[in-house]
TrEMBL record:
PROSITE patterns: RHODANESE_1, RHODANESE_3
SUPFAM superfamilies for this protein: Rhodanese/Cell cycle control phosphatase
Source organism of this protein record: Paracidobacterium acidisoli
Coiled-coil parts of chain: none
Record protein name field: 3-mercaptopyruvate sulfurtransferase
Upper lineage: Bacteria, Pseudomonadati, Acidobacteriota, Terriglobia, Terriglobales
Entry GO MF terms: 3-mercaptopyruvate sulfurtransferase activity; thiosulfate-cyanide sulfurtransferase activity
EC number: 2.8.1.2
Cellular component terms per the entry's GO annotation: cytoplasm
Amino acid sequence: MHPIVTPAWLAEHLSDRDLAVFDATLPPVGAVPPADTHARYLAGHIPGAIFFNIEELSDHSTSLPHMLPTPERFSLSMASLGVSDAMSIVVYEQEGMFSAPRAWWMLRTFGVQHVSVLDGGLRAWVEAGLPVQAGPVDRAPAAFHARLNSAAVKDFSAIQQMITEHAQILDARSAGRFTGASPEPRPGLSSGHMPGAVSTPYTDLLEAGRLKPAAKLREYFFSKEVNLEEPITTTCGSGVTAAVVALGLQLAGAKYISLYDGSWSEYAQHPEAVIEKGE
């Protein structure tokens, strides 16, 4: 499967027995009051879609947000949702492009071979005149065997090594947070950036809530002097929008992509972290 599928493609394949669809919408950090994305899912979703609750499916043994759970825990969660690792999976969100790529990355990192993001999400589906369904969706339990791709995940020690080696680190946060001119949305964290990191705000990769075409993504990364043939690690505030940049890199043809799971939430509070300000 291509990393991006259209509403027309999904409509054609929606009844396939080996296809699952996830609504992976997270509320934006700092939104007041926080959006109830599960309630919105219940009010209307793509027929047969399951709510992929990124918060619930993350590791709760750490105070860091959205960290990957253990493969065993993820396997149990997916099995209870009625999804097998052999299935093809399409993820979407209710508005724009923000959290669905995080679900895409999680599934791929745990060994699902065929995962795509719906271009334009639920809005594009509705605008295409396609039907929606209300209420919960229940599927019979399935067998899911998560296999962690450790090369796709970086931790603090790996990031420290990358900084020392001047490896490519792309930061998906806003330019203001990167330079230190704007505050972090999580209290107590300094803004700024890792030494040598490149500012690539995830919003730069979007047009009208969708990822830009592959050719435009390549032009953008070229303008940032990113070498798509060399290893690249993405980071953000908590590992969510870093996955938007990872998906953009995948579409642009990057060869070796990984994501710093702890991202700035971990890095900025680590006693050994060096934080730089400015461009």
